[in-house]
Write a structure and sequence with these properties.
1 helix; three-stranded mixed sheet; 56 residues; globular; 60s Ribosomal Protein L30, Chain: A; alpha+beta
């Protein structure tokens, strides 16, 4: 599993990282956090997640 988090303000990174860690605690995905201009003024965070499932 891999996540990418796009954030509007870098000052928010610790709270966002904490929320991410709480949600994905058992998975512990690789993660990248990027400061970005998001699509609307009201948006503070956008996240992408990718997962690969083994064919069993």
């Amino acid at each position: 599993v891999r996540t990418r988090i796009y954030i509007k303000q870098m000052d928010d990174w610790e709270a966002i990282a904490r929320a991410h860690g709480e949600r994905f605690r058992s998975i512990q995905p690789a993660n990248t956090m990027i400061k970005a201009e998001l699509i609307g003024e009201e948006y503070l965070v956008e996240m992408e997640a990718e997962a690969v499932l083994k064919n069993t």
